[in-house]
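Here is a typical protein record:
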Amino acid sequence: MTLSSLLFGQDTIKNFHKNGKVSEIYILKNQVRDGVTKYFDDSGTLVSEVPFVSGKVEGVVKHFHPNGMVKESFQIVEGKRTGIFESYDSLGSVIASLNFYNGAIRKETPSSDPDNPGKDPMNEKYNTAAIKLTVEEMTFLDSYKAVIPPGDPAVYPMVDEAPMFLRGEEEFYSRLFYPSRALDDELEGTVIIRALVNSDGRVESTEVVKSLGMGCDESAEITVRYTDFIPAKLKGRSVNSYTEVTVSFKLPVK
């Protein structure tokens, strides 16, 4: 369940557990998650705070004990743990501390390099291209993928399946009008239209991102605007998403 009035710019969304307690509170900026999302258990107790930047987890993540004290704290940078990870007991005392770099735990033991006996292991260089996400890290990041409630007003920049023509490309081109001025001047080329397709497959807005001129832009934009789509899919659910439609204008064979 979602409680929201869709606003341009910023909006605060609340989702709820089946018992009516708030399950999460998050912020939409320009129709994508951006800001700290707060997660609650079904008793209303704060469980986690997770920062999002443009729909992705980025920043300091915190988990909490039932009494409100921080249980764990760590930082995500470009999808990987980077920086100090600390866990605490329910009274706030540190019980564990690790230092991560690009998803890998930094070495904490003194260097044994005989040529550099005083080398600081914290300054060792890493082959970042060789560092991959572990199974545990992938599971962790997957657990914080946004829950997509019915009617979610957010626009998702990253989706599992992009929008597609509902009735196919042939039907689309059967409705495309070739402007007479462009025909007379034998103008050929492409127009690219960026369209916002909602979760019902309807186009809510369009803009020309690559122009051809001589009326072709207007023709392509109007045709896209009145085209039905199979909406984008994320985690198996239809969502709002942008798509770019390349519209080709080719002279008929004489």
